[in-house]
From TrEMBL:
Similarity remark: Belongs to the chloride channel (TC 2.A.49) family.
Annotated protein name in UniProt: Chloride channel protein
InterPro entries documented for this protein: CBS_dom, CBS_dom_sf, Cl-channel_core, Cl_channel-4, ClC
Entry's localization field: Endosome membrane; Membrane
Amino acid sequence: MDFLDEPFPDVGTYEDFHTIDWLREKSRDTDRHRKITSKSKESMWELIKSLLDAWSGWVVMLLIGLLSGTLAGVIDLAVDWMTDLKEGVCLSAFWYSHEQCCWTSNQTTFDDRDKCPEWQKWAELMTGTSEGAGAYLLNYLLYVLWALLFSFLAVSLVRVFAPYACGSGIPEIKTILSGFIIRGYLGKWTLLIKTVTLVLAVSSGLSLGKEGPLVHVACCCGNLFCSLFSKYSKNEGKRREVLSAAAAAGVSVAFGAPIGGVLFSLEEVSYYFPLKTLWRSFFAALVAAFTLRSINPFGNSRLVLFYVEYHTPWYMAELVPFILLGVFGGLWGALFIRANIAWCRRRKTTRLGRYPVLEVVGVAGVTALLAFPNPYTRRSTSELISELFNDCGALESSQLCDYVNSPNMSRPLDDIPDRPAGPGVYTALWQLALALVFKVVVTVFTFGMKIPSGLFIPSMAVGAIAGRMVGIAVEQTAYHHHDWIIFRNWCRPGADCVTPGLYAMVGAAACLGGVTRMTVSLVVIMFELTGGLEYIVPLMAAAVTSKWVADAFGKEGIYESHIQLNGYPYLDVRDEFSHRTLAADVMRPRRSEPPLAVLTQDADSVEEVEALIKGTDYNGFPVVVSRESERLIGFVGRRDLTLAVKTARQKQEGVVSSSLVFFTEDPPPLPDDPPPPLKLRRILNLSPFTVTDHTPMETVVDIFRKLGLRQCLVTRKGRPQTHGPDDGPGPRVHHVQLVLLRAALHPCSGLHCTRTHLYIHLPGVCLP
C-alpha cells in the first residue's frame, strides 16, 4: 500500500530559514496547469474554473495595486499632518496640516501664504505670543518632545508586535525573492505595524525616508492576496512572481514612478523575472499609481512628488560639473556604505544592540536638538528636496531665491536672467553647508535601527544640497565672468544661463546611485519623479559616473552589504567567480570527514531512517541502489522524509521500527510474516541535478544562480562519492563519490532562531 496516494499536510513545503527548490516548484506548476487544461475539456464548469485560474494572476495584481496605492496615500497624508504637528496645530480642524489649514483660510495673502490665523505654533497657542526668546525655546522644547514621543512609539510597537517591521526591508525582499524562506516577514502583523510605525518614524524627524519601507508594505500586500488563491499559496515559486510585481507597485507609489518601479524590480530586486511577470508588474504599478493619484495626497493634482519646470536648456559645458557631482555621489556612496556597515556591525557585536529603544530615542533626541535651529533641517526632508529642486521664479519667496534684481528688468516672469546673489542666498549657502554635514553624519547612525527606515530620500537630500550649492557657484561664476572662454559661447550678459535646481536634481541622482548602484531604473525614476524628461542625459552622466566611482571602492551596494552583514544566503548574479577549482575540490564531505549519509532504495528499516534523520542535520539524502554499487537513483528531502515517516506511523496500520522502507515501484522480496513495508516513492525526486567531479566551479556556481538549485550532486561514472578526493598517499577510493553543495544549517544571530546558509567551501574562502 502507498499511503501517500492520499496527500497529507506539509509534504513538499519548506521549513523556516530554508531555501526553496525552484526546479521542483516549476515542475509542480507545470503539472497543475496540465491537469487543469485536460479537465477543462470535460465540462463547462471545469472550463470556467480554468478561465478563473488563468485570470487569478491579474486579479491579484489589481488587488495589490489598489491596496498599496491606498496605504501609500494614507501614509503620505498622515506624515504631512504629524510632521507639522511638531510645530503647531490648526485651530479650525486639528487634522489639517499647515498647508491644508492655510488653503482653507480666507485671510491668507500670497506674500504670507505660509501664515494664517487658523494655524498657530505651540508657543503662540500657549502663551499668546510667537516672538521672543521664550516663544522660541518653548517651540524648540515641544519640537524635541514630539520627536521623542513619535520615535518611542515607533520602536516600541516594532519591538513588541512585529520585530520584522524594522529597517528598509529591501535586503530581505531581495533574499526572499531569490528563494529564501522567512516566515512572518510578509505577514499581516508586519503589514499593519510597518504601516503605522512608518508614519511615526518619518514624522519624528529622523534622517530616513518612507520609500524603501513602502516596497516592503507592497510585498506584504502581495503575500496577503497570495493566500487567497491556492495557485500562489501552495507554490513558492509562483508566490515570488507576485512579490516581484508587488515590489514594482511599491516603488510606483513611493515615487509616483510606475515605469521606474517595473525597472527597479527588474534591475535591483528580482531574482527570477519572466516576461509574464513583466506584464503583470506593469499592470500592478499602473493600478497603484492610479489609486494614489485618485487620493491626491500632495494636493497638486499630479502624481509626481517633486514636479519641476525649468525654462532653460542645459549646455554641453555643464557636463563637467554634472560629472563632478557624479564623482561626489560615488565617493559619498562608498563612504556611507563602509561607515554604516561598520556601525551596524558594532551594534550587532556590542551591548548597544541589546537596547534598541534607547538607541532610537537617543538618536531621535540628538537629531531633533541639532535640526531645529537650522530651517533646512527642521522641515521634512521631502520639503527640503522640493525647495532645492525648484527654479527661482518671480513669485518664489525662498531664501535661495534672494537675488539682486535689476530695476530695469522687464522680462517675462518665466525667463528671469541670471542675477547677482543677495544676502539671503549667502545665508542659505552656509545653512545648507551645515545641513549637508548634519545629513551625512546622522544618516550613518539612523539607517539600520529597529524602526522602519528608508534610504532613498536621505541620500537624495545629501545630493540635492551639494548639487544646489554647486549650481549657485556655477551660476555666480557665469554671471561675474561671462567673458571666460567656457561661458562666452552660451552665456551672454542678461541671459538665463544656469539653473541651480537642475544641479540639485543631478546631485540627488548621483548620491542615490552611489549608495544603491542603480543605473537605468534610477534615471527613469528621477525623470518620472520630477517630470524633467529633457534632462535625461545629465542624469545618465551623473548616474554612470557615480556607479563607476563607487564600484572602484567595492562592488556591493548598500542592500547587498546588509545582506552579507545579516548572513542571508544570496547568490548575486552580478558577482564574478574567479577561482580555478573543480567540483571535486569543493564538495563535501572531505577526506577527513565521515562518509556522506545515503539511503538505499530497499534495504533500510524505519528505525534506521529515523536514526539517520536524528543523527544528521543535512537537508536531504541521496538514494542509491545499494551501498555496494552506490548507483544514484534519486534524492529525498529531509522534511518530506520526516513527515512521511511520522504520518505513516500514525495512519498506516502495522508500521513499526523494523518495517522496511523502499523507494521502488514494487516491494522487494520479504521474509515470511514481515511487518508491513513502507513505500515512499512518491516523495523521491527521480531527477536530481548532477554534475561530474571535474565540472569547473565557475560552471557550478552559474548553475546554482540561474536554476535556483537547492543542492547539487557530484558524481563520477554515475555513482555518488562518499568521500572527498584523496589528496594524500595510500590507496585511492574507487567508489563514485558524491558531493552535496547543500544548504548547511549554521547558527547565527537572528530574531528567533538559526538561518539556513548556502555555502560553497573553498580553501580559505567562504562564498555565500
